Amino acid sequence: MTNTTQPRLLADIAWAHSGDKGDMVNIGVAAREPRHYPLLLRLLTPQRVAAHFSDICKGQVRCYPLPNLNAVNLVLTQILDGGPMRSLRLDPQGKALGDALLLMPIDGQT
Predict the structure, then answer these.
(1) What is the CB-side half-sphere exposure of residue 17 using CA atoms within 13 A?
(2) Is residue 72 part of a domain?
(3) In what order do the strands lie in the sheet with 61-66?
(4) How far apart are CA 34 and CA 52, in angstroms?
(5) I want to staple 7 with a disulfide (CB 3.0 to 4.6 A). Which of 12, 19, 32, 88 is the partner?
């Protein structure tokens, strides 16, 4: 049985992996299929990613397209409350932020 519904979350068209360095998080997001890469570029703008993480990201969001990989590299600054050694967050290393990004709604963007 095939799914004929439109994608609703970023997770429907991409996968992500994240990690930290100090008070910064790096999130790599890759399209599940090459045909989804143009949509990924439209969705993952600095403004949209910053809005998605507006409750925790106090710094800049930079987006670097990686067309040869059908992926985008995101760098978010001032997002870990000072970094793993200072933060009292449950996930002070940002490992779950890739998964959190995949919850971004994409309705109306497809």
Answers:
(1) 2
(2) yes
(3) 14-21, 24-31, 71-77, 61-66
(4) 24
(5) 12
Q: How far apart are CA 63 and CA 53, in angstroms?
A: 14
Cβ pair 59, 78 in contact under 8 A = yes
List the Cα angle 41/45/49 in 5-degree steps.
Answer: 120
Task: Evaluate whether residue 21 is within a structural domain.
Answer: yes
- Per-residue pLDDT of 59-90, as tens digits, reads 999 999 999 999 999 999 998 877 666 665 65
pLDDT, tens digit (0-9, with 9 covering 90-100), for 83-105: 666 665 656 567 789 999 999 99
**pTM score, whole prediction:** 0.85
Hey, what are 109's tokens?
Answer: 């963007």
Task: Answer for the pair 63, 40: CB distance below 8 angstroms, yes or no.
Answer: no
In a domain, 59, yes or no: yes
